[in-house]
Specification:
Elements (H helix, E strand, L loop, with lengths): L9 H6 L2 H14 L6 H14 L3 E5 L2 H11 L7 E5 L5 H7 L4 E5 L9 H6 L5 E4 L11 H11 L2 E5 L7 E2 L2 E2 L6 E5 L13 E5 L2 H10 L21 H12 L1 H19 L5 E2 L8 E2 L5 E5 L2 H10 L27 H9 E4 L7 H15 L1
Parallel strand pairs: 2-3, 2-4, 4-5, 5-8
Antiparallel strand pairs: 1-9, 6-7, 6-11, 8-9, 10-12, 12-13
Helix pairs in contact: 2-9, 3-9, 4-5, 10-13
The chain binds pyridoxal-5'-phosphate.
The site of pyridoxal-5'-phosphate has 15 residues, from helix 4 and helix 5.
Length: 367
């Protein structure tokens, strides 16, 4: 039988722990604990503790988490937010929905926000920087924090892909005024549906966000604010509590696969692999993004071998979407990056044989 390596095997997310998920579903449902119950509180506390921050607020998804963060941290009409164009449309859409102006800048060779380009993108209207902690690697935050300080800008981290990743020992998502995580199924801590989280050390923002996600309700009804509904389902929180029990193992497994890729593929001149740690970084490999020659042919070659690959964001950086209003931005480095980038399979369902099959097939292509 020919070996198959799906890019991400969604049914396995359930089937690998089917009995446990059924047990949790039964327990939560029997308690009638569907909305904002102890499982949510417990999960929020655990994430806050894990990240070493004061507060965590479960919300419906990471896009909501960004929207709510910008709104409550004071983004006003016309305010500019600088972000790297190599990200999901969710990052700039969270600015647009608040009537702000998302300003795309270049990514560097690691796919993360380019410091010089960030600096050059700042104008009198800039109010926020949104670094994106992509692929489970945290940006070099020191220069970003310096720029934020110099120009008095706030930072909202899109760390939807960053849970567990660290820079100088500090967790992705904890450097700025707010950080967000996503629990979308294919994310490193993925539930059986949508889910998201805001983390912060800012007490006022925390209390506002906590009521904003629940129709603006506060314990004292005189203090009610306008809000919306963006609650993290208690059932998902219960699933996530279970999955979080073995989160360190999840990270270990991904790091081991990354190490295997590095061992097999680092001699191929046509490929640039993601770095495997350095003194400042601890990477969790939400994705394994390579830069390679003849990318489209390689993708095809791997598809013929039943190996699923992906070009992130459907193959386009944000500024390359023609009808979304970014035509005045010229980002040649990011354009070049998107001619060469490819995600190869990276998830905990991969067997050693599958990883080996991916490696051998790539080696064969460049021979
Ligand atoms: C997944 C992702 C999001 C959106 O997360 P959702 O929970 O699906 O809303 C935002 N930004 C980045 C970088 C992502 O990878």
């Amino acid at each position: 039988m020919k070996m198959k390596v799906p890019f991400f095997d969604y049914p396995q997310l359930y089937s690998l722990n089917k009995n446990k998920f059924i047990e949790i579903f039964d327990d939560v449902s029997s308690r009638g604990a569907f909305i904002m119950q102890n499982d949510l509180k417990e999960f929020e506390n655990r994430i806050a503790k894990y990240c070493n921050v004061k507060y965590a607020i479960g919300v419906a998804n990471a896009t909501d988490a960004l929207e709510i963060s910008f709104k409550l941290l004071g983004l006003k009409k016309g305010d500019e937010v600088v972000f790297p164009s190599h990200t999901m449309l969710a990052s700039p859409s969270s600015v647009i929905i608040n009537s702000g102006v998302p300003v795309p800048c270049e990514c560097n060779e690691e796919g993360l926000i380019d410091i010089e380009s960030l600096r050059n993108s700042i104008t009198k209207k800039t109010k926020f920087i949104m670094p994106v902690q992509l692929n489970g690697r945290t940006c070099k935050m020191d220069p970003i924090l310096e720029i934020a300080k110099q120009y008095e800008l706030k930072i909202v981290e899109d760390s939807a892909q960053g849970l567990g990743s660290r820079y100088k020992g500090k967790m992705a998502g904890t450097f700025g005024d707010a950080g967000v995580y996503s629990f979308y199924p294919a994310k490193i801590l993925g539930t059986l549906g949508d889910g998201g989280m805001i983390i912060t050390d800012n007490e006022n923002f925390y209390h506002e966000a906590l009521s904003f996600r629940d129709h603006g309700r506060k314990t004292n009804s005189e203090e009610t604010i306008w809000g919306r509904n963006s609650r993290l389902h208690n059932l998902h929180a219960a699933f996530l509590n279970f999955q979080f029990d073995y989160f360190e193992k999840t990270i270990e497994k991904r790091r081991k696969i990354a190490y295997t890729y590095k061992k097999w593929l680092s001699n191929i001149e046509e490929i640039k692999l993601p770095v495997y740690d350095d003194d400042d970084h601890y990477d969790t490999y939400q994705n394994f993004e390579i830069l390679c020659d003849s990318r489209d042919q390689l993708k095809k070659h791997l598809a013929n071998k039943n190996i699923g690959t992906l070009i992130q964001w459907g193959g386009k950086a944000v500024h390359q979407f023609k009808n979304l209003g970014f035509s005045k931005y010229n980002l040649p480095n990011t354009d070049k990056y998107f001619e060469r980038c490819l995600l190869i399979p990276m998830n905990v369902f991969l067997s050693d044989n599958q990883v080996e099959h991916v490696c051998k097939s790539i080696i064969e292509f460049y021979k």
